[in-house]
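Entry for magnesium ion complex. Fields follow.
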Amino acid sequence: MASEIIKKIADYLVAAEVEKREVVKVTKTIKPDLTVEEAYKAQELLVQKKLDEGHRIVGPKMGLTSRAKWDQMGVSEPIYGYVFDYMLIDNGGVLPFSDLIHPKAEAEIAFLIGEDIEGPGITGAQVLAKTEYVLPALEIIDSRYENFNFTHTDVIADNASTSRVVFGNTLRKPSEFELELVGATLSINGQIKELGAGAAVLGHPANAIAVLANMLARKGEKIKKGEIILSGAITSALLLRVGDFVSGKFDGLGEVTFSVGE
Ligand code: 0L1
Ligand code: MG
């Protein structure tokens, strides 16, 4: 049973998302000593609220998957959140800026899972064997906290800044690739702003999915067949503005685009 304070945190963050307004981080306003366990409990309540409203989970997502981000946040583990159906934008579609607070885009490789994956002890190789397809994606993160200013536990409670996702149309078997070598560029209005390779994600994007399976196992959960999972950012995230045309080009996986509307 969640405590009143954990419920308060979930309500605080859901209201910020719905009202599209940034808020001061939870560790400054509600609970300075928020633990990782409590933060995931708050995230669970936030997720449950969305399910109760009739939204459907597309899949979990991994965040903070680069060692550079770990150093920056002083942590040694990625985080996860959940992508919902209302967050999906068609490839080539429009992201209405007024729906969000201060969106940023990052390039990622997504995994369409072919069989349940249950930790602990899952490896990247096991993930690849149970992956139906990989596909390119642009994730739009939109922290509910002012200036993206948060601690590790704040961002966990905030559903790992999850906001919108554009999946590409090219589905390929993971066996066709060395995913760690897949390069990606992220451009705005035709100019390459960021670039990277799959190896930026824990050495190989499948490793991030393995970590997710092992983290979910701690609470008796598993990755489910049919889920589409973002494995973590290959590039840094770029702040978006109205009028931007955003394009992610992935070696062998095609292009994903969207425009930022008003
Ligand atoms: O998807 C991500 O890696 C985002 C994790 C949260 C950190 C951020 O909002 O920058
Ligand atoms: Mg991401």
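NOTE: Residues 36-52 form the longest helix (17 residues).
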